[in-house]
Amino acid sequence: MSLSALRDEATIAHESPLSAPSGYGGTIRVLLQDEGGGRVEAFGVGVSRCLSVVYLTDAQPGFPERLQIAVGDIMHSLEIPSIDARSRREHF
Question: Is 0.85 surpassed by the pTM of this model?
Answer without folding.
Answer: no
